[in-house]
Amino acid sequence: MPTANPQPMLRRFSAVLLIPLILAAAGLTSVALEPGAAAEVADHGAPAMKYVGRWNYDHPNRTTGTNIAESDLPGRESVPQVGDLVLAADGADHLIGRTNVGCTWRFRATGQMLELDPARQVCHNPTSRVTYTINSWTLDVRGDHAVERLSATSHHERDYSFKVENGARTRVQEYDPKATAPLAGAWTYDPADPTSGINIRTTVAISPDGTQTREPSPEQGTITIRTEYGNRLTAVTDNGCTWSLVARGNLAMLDPAIQSCTLGDSSLTMRSWDISTAGEHQASTMTGTDERGRNFTLSIGSLHKD
Question: Burial, 27: exposed, middle or buried (Cβ in 10 Å; 0-12, 13-18, 19+)?
Fold first, then answer.
């Protein structure tokens, strides 16, 4: 009876395992495999490779509680999670993860589970300029889907807790031209709700004596998104500013990460803008500096398609 030739599989497996070594030698720290490929490599003894790639949060759903963070921070008791996590192998069973807001975290792969290692890690979020400690964080992976649980503490004038009990992520391709079509069109902000924080922009004003005050204001207007080449998009806001985005899966993100728009004698700068879409609904977050030089944050953006 003929015997199967193992050489093609061995060559393929060896080549994939060499990818992180080659990139490391070149000074690169991120390794990303296409969805499905990492799991095949993990079956051959490299557990970390199973988790490598870009993992989007699925579109948040308040009805099911999927990707909704619960917090005791006033005005942010229930916050949809929008963004991604890029995981790169760091040895056979460890990974380094970088979130869309610029924080870096270390994980350990154990069977089906990915967990924070060490258990408590701190990041000063360079995007929203908030420091927080993640006390525990696990990802239970099945193929290209993961169930997430997270418990953390954010540090303000006092500490506040937040947790994600029903997190869900999907591994997406780096180049995904099909992701642009659902985002294209005109999107209008839903009515602002100060109680829940939906479409409430928070602007930090600094007085001459250095005192900081937080000023809430409703986020309003329409955003027009048009497709460009490949997985690129352009968003046009009511003030005439244009912003460049890249789409992967359900998510579009500002790319490059920091962009500015000249408005008369002043300028508006966006440091981050993350958009998740599902059907006729869009959830978003954004941070930046307004025309008066004041930092602003929109944590719970909600829009509908016109």
Answer: exposed
pTM to 2 decimals?
A: 0.83
- Same domain for 185 and 143, yes or no, is no
CATH number at residue 192: 2.40.128
Domain shared by 120 and 207, yes or no:
no
Q: Which amino acid is located at 117 in the chain?
A: D
Instruction: Compute the distance between CA of residue 132 and CA of residue 57 in angstroms, rounded to an integer.
Output: 20
Residue 142, burial from CB neighbour count under 10 angstroms (0-12, 13-18, 19+)? exposed
Kindly write down the DSSP assignment for every residue of 151-166, as one continuous string.
EEEEESSSEEEEEEEE
Note whether 81 and 224 are same-domain residues: no
pLDDT digits 0-9 by tens, 52-77: 999 999 999 999 999 999 988 777 78
Rounded CA gap, 211 and 177, in Å?
47
First to last CA, the chain: 65
Domain total of the chain? 2
Helices (H), the chain: 7-25, 37-42
Contact 274, 59 (CB under 8 A): no
